[in-house]
């Protein structure tokens, strides 16, 4: 009974009713327990997916919580839908769930459009994302969530604001780089095509070379019958041949630019013959012409002016300036009787021998037991044996024949042991040059040595001579009216007569007229640096209206020398052919 009593119906119910009630309660508890268990498992799984990144499936929804607030409204809406789709696809990978009206590229598409606009401003390829095939072909089908997933792939494992947008931009950049590579490839193909097109045209290149060669030959031929010295100075902005102040070898007294001369018109003039066009001096080519040779200047300080000009022109074309140097290491060129610059790479020398009269300066005993200076009109300069084997010789004389001693000619000119009490300077000049001419004929081999003589260079002292207040510092333009030119010097007429009596052919650089135009080209008061204008114009300072600024007029003399070398080379080739 006791056991039976435990199972008696409550409130008068029977056993079946009571059991049914117990089973109903049991069923309700199980359902609730199952629901709670499922919810707990769902939370754990969701949390695990949210905080556990992987290569294939990461936590795009959670990771973008930090970036949603900083995105634009349109981007936010699209991003949210993309994130929801991403979570859904992670939970149900086989689901065909797709968000309506949402491009599969998601954020990438919108960011790429912005990126494209920015790059258009920078001149990048126009519309690099014109078709979706660019994305699919170059980087696969980039889903918005895949772009977002990159935020957790940072090696440092640190959350970064707007990481999805940054990675999206990186993806776009990658696509753009791919596109750029495609473009570069096309350019490369074009270049390749150009190469293929030009490859068969080797003959046309040969034809072009032949045309250039013919042009050079025609140019040289045009020089053969051209009077180089009948012409005018024309302005040319491509001059000078080397940058002012760039050549440290120029003597201080010639370096007008570094001596604070402010006007620069004198630097921009080119000599233009009336009957032809002189070639611009190509320093590299001239050095090739001089390879293995000696070019020697012999004469006074005006030839030193020309020598320094050529050294600067040639040196300017040499890359390694250390391979251009004065043989004895000198850097100043006014005190010694001989200087030699070596161009090591070309194994050539460009030298200068001081010999202002071309004949020897001498001394004899006077009546008082002392010594007096004389000029031996019958003896060639004492350095002649040192340069007689040179390949090219450029002589000059003239200015020292205008000095007081030579002009007066009293007890100064000597022949043998006889000192003339008085001798006309023009006659003394003729006798001295005759001595020079005879020495050339006797000692120079014209087949080896090319002999040139540079004529008298005009001076422009106004209001006196060099030592009596003569000036030219106000001159900034060349003479343009021929009526203001001085008559041809009588000494140069004597020189021409001497040439006629010589066996050796001498090329005469008759620069007298061309220099007469250039009253603007002298150093004048710009002979020293760091002087005030008052100091420059001081009555105690002489103006130099004989020598020339460098860069300047002597550069044109060297262009004439270059033209003469081209003509001689052409003549030698023609002689070999015949």
TrEMBL record:
The keyword Cell membrane does not apply. It holds the Pfam family PMR5N. Residues 278-563 form the Trichome birefringence-like C-terminal domain. It comes from the Eukaryota. The chain crosses the membrane at residues 32-51. InterPro entries: TBL, TBL_C, TBL_N. Keywords: Membrane, Signal-anchor, Transmembrane, Transmembrane helix. It is a single-pass membrane protein. Its main location: membrane. Residues 225-277 form the Trichome birefringence-like N-terminal domain. Belongs to the PC-esterase family. TBL subfamily. This is Protein trichome birefringence-like. It comes from Solanum pennellii (Tomato). The gene is LOC107032086.
